[in-house]
Amino acid sequence: MILENPESNVKLLTPIPDFNDSVAKILNLLNNLNSFLLTTHINPDGDAVGSCLALYHYLRQKNKNCSIFFHSPIPSNLRFLDGIDKIKFSSDSGLVFEQTDAVIVVDLNDISRVKALRDSIEKCNGVKIVVDHHLEPKDFADYYLIDTTASSTGEILYKLFKEDKDINWTAPLCEALYVAIMTDTGNFRFERTDGEVHRIVADLIDFGVDPVKLYNVVYNTMPLNTARLLGVGYSNLESFYDGKLVVMSIRNRDFLLTSTTEEDTEGFVEAMLSIENVVMSILIIEVIERNEIRVSIRSKGEFSARNLALNFNGGGHKNAAGCRFNKMELEEVKKMLVDRAKNILNP
Ligand SMILES: [Mn+2]
């Protein structure tokens, strides 16, 4: 069965509040409230982690009480970031959400993606604030700071902080923002990488960020076992429609063979786009613990990864999307995806 989207009945946020109005409102809230809880989506990426930490450092500067809760582990290449030790996990006991003035969810626009924290967030008395750049935000919070054209949540936070004339651009704050923007733009290669993005990171570099160091720490860190898993993936790579589409399948036995886990596949789907003629890549992962097939899709230009994912109750950006399938065989999922991709690739 195809996994049903539990949030399909949640209404969209329309209209999306004006960005500049929201900046003023959110700055006001950050400066006038006293306690904050920050969280983000499952499987946090560099933008999620960097944005949470940037907000944390900003709020601590203002002497606010601030906690961060995540529901899934932080990728190891992001654990160098200052403040990472302050992040608590939803499995930790003693979640006291009711006592916070505000909950801020960053880099997500759908409450279902906060998983185990959802109940606590919904019951919390504090105001609920969303800071995000994904398309089609859902209506579940009190305040929104949203720009669906921004490269990253980090970019949005930079613009927010810039309006605060008293801000101190400390190294931990700037590094967190830089990592958020660098990772969500694929190291400044993805479509939303415009002049503004470069002007922002130029500012961050002027404030003292070391781009060479941050690139090395974030990207040149593939563990040997992960490299071997990628090798297994590449060795079973399949090509369709004159090489426009490539599909990599990672099965449970591949994880066992290389002593790796699902998290180690981070970056695999993007890596396939460097293959000649490829305009769409699909990574299909068998996650036996959840009896699930997890699919990541990447694409170039007008070819929409998102449109493919929407066929299967998934979602995402135009060039980066995903979906999940329950109780299905990997081969079956692959066949469906390849068949549907045909229309999008128009071979
Ligand atoms: Mn993001």
Describe this structure as you would to a colleague.
The protein has about 350 residues and is an alpha/beta fold. The chain folds into two domains: about 20-220, inorganic pyrophosphatase (n-terminal core) (Alpha-Beta Complex); about 225-345, Roll (Diaminopimelate Epimerase, Chain A, domain 1). The chain contains twelve helices and twelve strands. The strands form two sheets. The protein has a six-stranded parallel β-sheet with strand order 3-2-1-4-5-6. Helix 5 packs across helix 7. The model is unreliable at about 1-5 (pLDDT under 50). It binds manganese (II) ion. Manganese (II) ion (MN) binds near residues 47, 107, 133 and 184.
Question: In the CATH hierarchy, what is the class of the largest domain?
Answer: Alpha Beta
Radius of gyration from CA coordinates: 20 Å
Q: What is the CATH topology descriptor of the largest domain?
A: inorganic pyrophosphatase (n-terminal core)
Low-confidence stretches: 1-7
CATH superfamily of the largest domain: inorganic pyrophosphatase (n-terminal core)
Give the distance, in angstroms, between the N- and C-terminal Cα atoms.
29 Å
Nutshell version of this structure?
By secondary structure, the protein is of the alpha/beta class.
Question: Which tags fit this structure?
Answer:
globular, six-stranded mixed sheet, alpha/beta, 12 helices, 347 residues, 18% strand, disordered N terminus, inorganic pyrophosphatase (n-terminal core), six-stranded parallel sheet
